Amino acid sequence: MPTGSHLGICYGIVELGTQQYVYQGEQKAGKMLRLLFELHGEDGDGQPLTLDDGRPLSISQRYTKSLHEKAKLRQHIVSWRGGKDLTPEELGQVPGQTGYNIRTLIGKHCMLTVKHSVKNDRTFANVDNVTQVPAVIRKLGLPDMVNSEVYFSFDEFSINDFNKVSQGLQKVIMLSPEYQKATNKAPAKPSRFADANDWFDKHEQLNSNKGME
Q1: Tens-of-pLDDT digits for all 213 residues of the chain?
Q2: DSSP code of 206?
Q3: Separation of alpha carbons 4 and 181, rounded Å
Q4: Given Cys at both, which of 13, 139, 193, 213 links 29, Cβ 3.0 to 4.6 Å?
Q5: ∠ at Cα 64 (60, 65), nearest 5°?
Q6: Dihedral angle at the C-alpha atoms of 100, 101, 106, 109, nearest 10 degrees?
């Protein structure tokens, strides 16, 4: 996965449920999700950003499920919208409003800034920022989405939706208490989950896996 700025399309959103991790030596937990993107165009050497079978390269980014002003998810949504912040209605601060519908991101074009991070001699590709597609590119015409839509949410739990998720992410989801509750399955081992209300993206590990895991 080359670094730099690439034209992308969000083709999936996958809720991971509450996940545990270690941050600065402390056990943490928080609700998380991944946005899935397909890339279009060419790399710096003029090579198409595709797999051997012609499908576009994919990358995913993990976020805490939070629209707090410090959360990376909100920051990326705002920059994706050209700097337009979420309204009180979208933030669920107005009685009778359901709040922001994140599913509306699926099918939307964007510019992805991809950076690499290294840990334990492994290199990971991460989405550092998501921004609007410049007008000059939009005028040339935007590509259609190639991948099928992927959407999994515990708010609308569906085994059919779960089965559309990659096996790697399924394994992660199955560790969550939300999945265990939805499927009436007991945890594989005792777990203690911390209150994640004030757990923001600054606590994320920087070495999120490339692609769909």
Answers
A1: 889 999 999 999 999 999 987 778 888 899 999 999 999 999 888 899 999 999 999 999 999 999 999 999 999 999 999 999 999 999 999 998 889 999 999 999 999 999 999 988 899 999 999 999 999 999 999 999 999 999 999 999 999 999 999 999 999 999 999 999 999 876 555 433 333 333 333 333 333 333 333
A2: S
A3: 41
A4: 193
A5: 105
A6: -30
Gyration radius of the chain's alpha carbons: 18
Angle made by CA atoms 52, 5, 147, in degrees to the nearest 5: 40
From the list 46, 43, 38, 56, the residue with the least C-alpha distance to 4 is 43
Structural domain spans, the chain: 4-203
Helix, strand, coil percentages, rounded to 5, for the chain: 20, 35, 45
Other C-beta atoms within 10 Å of 194: how many?
13
In the chain, the largest separation of any two C-alpha atoms, in whole Å, equals 55
Q: Which tokens belong to 20?
A: 């545990």
Q: Which two tokens stand for residue 83?
A: 């700097």
CA angle (124, 125, 131) in 5-degree steps: 155
